[in-house]
Each structure stands twice: as C-alpha cells, then as structure tokens.
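hey so i finally got around to running the thing on that chain from the lab meeting. sorry it took forever, my laptop kept dying and i had to restart like 3 times. anyway pasting the input first so we r on the same page abt which one it is
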Amino acid sequence: MDSNKPFNQQCYDLLRQIPKGKVVTYADIAHRLGGKAYQAVGNAMANNPDVIIVPCHRVVNSNGAIGKYALGTEKKITLLQEEGVELDTDKGKVLNLDKQRHTFL
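ok and heres what got predicted. didnt touch it at all, straight out
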C-alpha cells in the first residue's frame, strides 16, 4: 500500500480489490494496512464519498454480522445477495464467512 496516501484512501483502494460475491472484515483491512485500527476502518467506511464505486457494502464484522451501511442495512443485504453472498437474513450474518471471504494478495 502507498503509505503516503491518507488512511481512508488506502482503505478505499483495498475495497476496490474485493470482487463481487466476496466479503472482508474490518480487521482484514486493518491487518492488510499493517495495524489493528479496526474502528478507523469503520470510520473510513462511514465516510466513503462514493458507495457505488467503492464497495463498502462488502465489509462485515469479524463474526460475520452484516453491520451498518450508509444506505441502510436492508440495502446492504440486497446488494450482497445480488452479488451472490450467502446470508442468514434472520440472524443478519454471512453464512460460511471463511468460504466467502476475500484474501488480499
């Protein structure tokens, strides 16, 4: 990653690498950036200026919980399902998180 870029931009650059049908956790992004700033990653997602181009809906909690989304949780669920992510909508969780998790190179 380019450490000269602002933290939020580094997060958004990583998000663009996540293919449709895959998810990552806040911790995955923080670890890829070399730290444990999970909350800062969450803040970056909350401040995403372009939720269409930067797919922050693909970021979930470490326990597989869907989490929040700028356009609402229902919209996040819809987007994930349209992309083929398997969810337990009753529990608000990603099914088989490890199988649906993107691994950064």
